[in-house]
Specification:
This protein has 310 residues and is mainly alpha-helical. Helix content is 45%, strand content 8%. It contains twelve helices and seven strands. The strands form three sheets. It has a three-stranded antiparallel sheet with strand order 3-4-5. It has a two-stranded antiparallel sheet with strand order 1-2. About 17% of the residues have low confidence.
Length: 310
């Protein structure tokens, strides 16, 4: 999966504006070019140990960070439950102490560790991690989804947290960091939403457009055109009922085929995590209205009449 960044002396740079400063968006976990607004890379996470010693004695110590207590385990003796940077629980907690805990407590500890690990792999900020943990704890307290695997539940909780925090991820992106299938994640997602009566903010094509275009290495002009196409298609009622992800993919396909950055349906499908046929279905609905969908100031490299016809 490609990104619009390059390395120079171990520094991340925008491929189009190498001298521009980069903005670290702590909410989304992205590095953004200050010149053109392009998402040029994910936040770099330092996985090395972080430690300091205040002892004057020159003794050999283990240079590792013990971790921090988890506020979501308030009902447990936090002096013995510590969380390491990787999301697993260690410190003074022994395997024997872990086995003495009740089943639900062990599931909470395991689930919180899985959420932290998955969130780190998708570069989700701490706010989303805490939000997902809170949802998972509520799910465990209801006892109505006990027959579902913990992996499926924590993945669904992370998906919900991302949506509610305004930085949604696709099921495909979460499948890549989880051990469960997209189908199982979807089932758990529906059960959790219904059981907890959780409200979800309506997601739009714009929520995914920046990340998709960045991974496809598309210029900002194409990204802006695709965003305008998708938004206008929904406003005109052309794609009512279709998934915002499939509409975003179809809009990218349409925008690239009249620009210099032509991208295949297959490439877009792989990045968006939807079937090629799904993109074609949305594209067919949008094609008759193509002239009305493009922004007025868009620079056409190919005439709009040369758009592919399926």
């Amino acid at each position: 999966m490609a990104s619009n960044w390059s390395w120079s002396n171990t520094m991340i740079q925008c491929s189009y504006h190498p001298e521009a400063n980069l903005i670290d968006d702590h909410h989304t976990g992205d590095m953004i070019c200050s010149e053109c607004g392009l998402v040029v890379g994910d936040r770099i996470i330092n996985l090395s140990t972080e430690w300091r010693t205040f002892s004057d004695e020159k003794t050999k110590t283990n240079p590792s960070r013990v971790g921090t207590t988890d506020p979501f385990l308030q009902d447990i003796d936090l002096s013995t439950i510590m969380q390491s940077p990787s999301g697993t629980y260690s410190g003074q907690t022994t395997h024997r102490n872990f086995l003495k805990m009740d089943t639900n407590t062990r599931k909470l500890i395991f689930g919180f560790g899985e959420i932290s690990a998955m969130a780190e792999r998708i570069n989700a900020p701490k706010s989303i991690v805490n939000h997902a943990k809170n949802i998972f704890k509520r799910v465990q307290e209801t006892n109505k989804l006990q027959h579902r695997s913990i992996d499926a539940k924590v993945t669904a909780c992370l998906y919900i947290a991302c949506r509610q925090e305004g930085v949604p991820r696709t099921f495909k992106e979460l499948c890549a960091v989880s051990s469960v299938s997209k189908k199982e994640i979807g089932r758990c997602f529906k059960l959790i939403v219904n059981d907890l009566a959780t409200s979800l903010d309506h997601i739009t094509s714009e929520d995914f457009m920046s990340r998709f275009c960045s991974n496809l290495r598309l210029p900002m002009e194409v990204q802006k055109a695709a965003t305008h196409i998708a938004q206008t298609a929904f406003e005109m009622g052309i794609v009512s009922g279709l998934s915002p992800i499939s509409v975003a993919a179809a809009a990218i396909y349409m925008a690239t085929h009249v620009s210099e950055a032509v991208t295949s349906n297959k490439e877009i499908a792989e990045i968006a995590g939807v079937a090629e046929m799904t993109i074609r279905r949305a594209y067919k609905l949008m094609l008759p209205f193509a002239e009305k969908l493009f922004p007025e100031n868009f620079h056409f490299y190919q005439h709009i009449s040369l758009l592919p016809v399926y």
